[in-house]
Amino acid sequence: MEIIAERITVTTKRIAEAMKARDIAPIMELAKVQNEAGCDFIDVSIGPATKDGSELMPWIIESIQKEVDKPICIDTTNIAAMEAGLKAHKGSGRPIINSASGQTGRKEEMFEMAAKYNSQVIALCMTDDGIPRDANERTAVAFDLLTTAQGLGVAPQDIYLDPLILPVSVQQEQAMESVESIRMFKELSDPSTKSTVGLSNIYNGCSEEIKPWVGGTYLALLEEAGLTTPITDPGDKKLFDVYEKAKKVIAGEDLGNGDGENISKTLKILKSEDLFSASYLS
After folding, report:
1. Which of 39, 44, 99, 160 is the most exposed place for a label (fewest CB within 10 A)?
2. Domain 4-206 carries which CATH code?
3. Concatenated DSSP letters for the chain?
4. Annotated domain spans of the chain
């Protein structure tokens, strides 16, 4: 399983301030920490960056790749900034565009750019109508994205389909719809596409105590369904410890301790067998 490291994002105050001030030190610190933790790609999220995105994105990419030899996941809604980042990307490995979708203006242009620069691309299963209701609808959007991408010269194995995870604390029934979507995506092409999720979305709104149990257990479910590449923090030791144990529980092993009990409770929450509450582990 590959990992796209998530921590260099404009949504974090410290990183947003560093981007604005052109202070590379905090950004570089996170790039090195995530690289040492074993990530395969480093996501650089600058958001819309409407004023200076075309200068900001290449500055960050060039700075990181001077010291960290990892491909970049170029994360922005600013198409000009996206292309500037692709032009600047010189390190080993191929970059990833984050992202195309079924929304107007986010499909053909993104796939054309991916083909032009020999980039991989994340494709969100979303249209102008929003996020689909279930796995079947997500897979229908995925098929349309895949067909469009192939017609524009992007191979299936260069596409990361994202079913779009929703918080279990808000839309509990959607957790397994995304898992089933990952399972169904594998049948869309031969060779099959890759798949990704923003893992933190599943525990958004949960307490710090619950987050690693929800995230780690859900990651094990997603991998069992065929997930290839989560977007997450590779240095989250507690989450990955839960993930390793959850794989054993899903395979039928009895851990014989409190961790196994917590994972079993979390599986019931994720599968909507028990109703979610903030105190479900108590």
Report:
1. 99
2. 3.20.20.20
3. ---EEEEEETTSHHHHHHHHHT-HHHHHHHHHHHHHTT-SEEEEEEE--TTTHHHHHHHHHHHHHHH----EEEEES-HHHHHHHHHH--SSS--EEEEEEESTTSSHHHHHHHHHTT-EEEEEEEETTBS-SSHHHHHHHHHHHHHHHHHTT--GGGEEEE-----TTT-TTHHHHHHHHHHHHTTSSSSPPEEEEEGGGGGTT--TTTHHHHHHHHHHHHHHHT--EEEE-TT-HHHHHHHHHHHHHHTT----SHHHHHHHHHHHHHTTSS---TTTT-
4. 4-206
pLDDT by position in tens, the chain (length 282): 999 999 999 999 999 999 999 999 999 999 999 999 999 999 999 999 999 999 999 999 999 999 999 999 999 999 999 999 999 999 889 999 999 999 999 999 999 999 999 999 999 999 999 999 999 999 999 999 999 999 999 999 999 999 999 999 999 999 999 999 999 999 999 999 999 999 999 999 999 999 999 999 999 999 999 999 999 999 999 999 999 999 999 999 999 999 999 999 999 999 999 999 999 999
Phi, psi (degrees; rounded to nearest 5) at 236:
-80, 90
Phi/psi at 97 (5° precision): -85, 130
